[in-house]
Amino acid sequence: MNTLSQVKPLQPVAVKPRSLPSVGDWRPTLLVKTWSALKWMMQRVKAQQARKNLRICESVSLGEKRFVAVVQVDEERFLIGGSSSSVSLLTRLSEAKTFAAALDQEAGKIS
Prior knowledge:
This protein has a domain at 53-110. The mean pLDDT is 79. Helices cover 41% and strands 29% of the residues. It contains three helices and four strands; from the N terminus they run ααββββα.
């Protein structure tokens, strides 16, 4: 038995030429993708700006997972203490003064 005689010869497959979509077909998709990218970038910018309202001015380790820190929220400053299991507000700090302002105030008391 000859297996080559049983195999059918391969026939070429007819390939239809595909045309590229016109520019008009791409406009809605391009517009949606651009709008989505702009929305995503604006959300990232807002998230980064929101994080800047809270900052740690200074912190000191007290050993064994304990610390004291000065935290600033907008224009207010707080002294907080923390351990491995809790964080506590110790006091609200008075407004920060520059050294020059404090020196002028003390000089005014002497005069």
